[in-house]
Amino acid sequence: MTTSQQRGQDEYTAVDRFDELPSHRRRRLLTIFAIRSLATVVVLLTAYFLLPFTRLLNGKLIVEFAAGVLLVIVVLTVQTLATLRSPYPLLRSVEAMAITIPLFVVVFSTTHYLINGLDPASYSEPMTRFDALYFTMTTFATVGFGDITPVTLPARFVTLLQIIGGLILVGVVARVLISAARFRQDRRFSNQPSVP
């Protein structure tokens, strides 16, 4: 075993289980994870409301939408790998979802907003950025009040992709992250030497 592998193995087994940590350490870790998650949401929403998306209305919406979906996939992959390496994988998997889901929502909100900008008749009523975020959230949460509905084929297609993506994100991806966290935790504690 190389020195770096040995050091990684030592770090791997040197960490206590989360529930065995002193309460002040658990609170500190929870606070750090919560602040990072909240900061991500704040940054994403601030960018969503403040960036000038009008430059994206030059006919390359499909490319930009695909880039946004690819970004969600890349972030999710990075978050899954981070969960597998984390000393507290269950906590890390929750943070991963708290980062990935808002990014997913912002990508689709931006797309709905831009579709509306290209053709205001794409939805049952013209949408502001807030309306697009509202529509995305009600669709993602499967509430779908019906006050804003997609009318044109592009708007319906993106909404359909959002519904499918949302189901995959919540169902499959959440399960993958939790499984990765459990795998990491089980592996870590099965490698620890037993204490007499």
Question: Any overview of this molecule?
Answer:
- The chain has helices at residues 3-14, 23-50, 61-85, 89-118, 129-140, 153-190.
- Helix 2 runs parallel beside helix 4, helix 3 packs antiparallel against helix 4 (89-118) and helix 4 (89-118) packs antiparallel against helix 6.
- The chain has 6 helices and no strands.
- The two termini are 26 Å apart.
- Mean pLDDT is 82; it is low at 4-14.
- It is mainly α and 196 residues long.
- The protein has a domain at 59-190: Helix Hairpins (Orthogonal Bundle).
- The radius of gyration is 21 Å and the shape is elongated.
**Range of helix content:** over 70%
Fraction of residues in β-strands? under 5%
**Mean of pLDDT:** 82
Largest sheet: none
CATH class categorisation of the domain at 59-190: Mainly Alpha
Q: What letter string, H or E per element, gives the SSE order?
A: HHHHHH
Cα gyration radius (Å): 21 Å
Unreliable residue stretches: 4-14
* Count of strand segments: 0
Distance between the termini: 26 Å
Q: Under the CATH scheme, which architecture of the domain at 59-190 would be assigned?
A: Orthogonal Bundle
Please work out how many helical segments DSSP would assign.
6
CATH topology of the domain at 59-190: Helix Hairpins
Structural class: mainly alpha
What does the overall shape look like? Answer: elongated
